[in-house]
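Appendix B. Raw example, untouched.
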Amino acid sequence: MNNKTKNIFLFGFIILIFLILGNIVWAQDSKLDRDFILYSEYTDIVLGKTEELDLDVKIINTGREMEEIFLSVIPDEQATNWEALLKNSTWKGFEVHKVVLLAEEPDNSKTLKFHIKVPEEVVSGNYKFTLKGITKDQQIEKTMDIIIGITEKKEETEEKEPGNIEMTTKYPTIENPAGKEFKFSIEVKNKTEETLMCDLGIQLPRGWSAYCTPQWKDERISSIKINKDSTENLSLTVVPPVFVEKGEYPITFIVESEENRASIDLKAIVTGTYKLNLRTETGLLNIDTIAGEEKTFTVYVWNEGSAAIDSLSFFSTKPEDWEVTFKPEKISSLPPIAETQKPEKVEVIVKTPSRTLPGDYMISLTTAGTQDQKRVEIRTTVKTSTKWGWIGIGIIVIILAILIGIFIKLKRR
């Protein structure tokens, strides 16, 4: 073997060694799990016979790639003759059987209307509708149950003697989350043989306010003229305080004209607001870890709403073979932070496989309760242990020493 051949052989062998060792420092993104969420703020609703409902339903792609999701509405056996479907909008909307969601916001979510029309012949009771979503490849399937409770339509009439004024409303009880107004539609009928000039009054809980307008008009009024044997339609708007607590609040609306007087009892049910928040202890959305080792960091979760959020669970989407655990794994109830004055502390433990290549990876942390959910993404930078670097350097030095020794020995020959 001549010197030129020896040099070429030595140079090529050294390049090969460096190429093999160089693979250690290249990172490969591991494909995150695919997932999506079906979500509605209200899942247990009371309606009267022949009533209609359009309920907001959100479909959110929480994965890292575009998804085609097929949708269907599955009624229970007692509700097969109902009109129940998903539409793109309330007014003249079309039925939706599939949505295509991108991975990036804001195109990763769609809000549809779950349309329900109660048949006239339905009997009182609870009826279950299951909303089902499944990906095109049928690998991911999610369901959500919505319960519709049916009651008889209530029509309340209150007439007090003396007088010939009659008031009715179809819906004397309205339920809303905190922060929303309550709107009651009221019919006022003059049953006398003369025109009446009536004063309007209302009895409210402390701190509440209200105003009255003719139906379909914006002018606020405190009195109204009603012709003999005529009916006027009024809209009563009741405004709760900003920090109203969850509960039931009685309201009385009064119409009075000299000896003629009538009142009607109404009820506003405040369900409270729900707003989950989740953030890391440092506020940063990135962590560093070593391949094959555990990394522990702290996140805080709190409720900025006005009512407690029930049954909180924690889960994650992560690269294949990674382990992500939470301590605690569940929280039975999370009261508003205005009551607790401190967030809940949760430890997150991330363990990467020992064979993980150095580089940046993404994990998603989600906390979900009965009423709300929150998700954050954490960029995780994986590094190799320094001992492997020294071992690699040692291997290179030994190989170079052997090659130089061989080269010198061959050159002497």
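End of appendix B.
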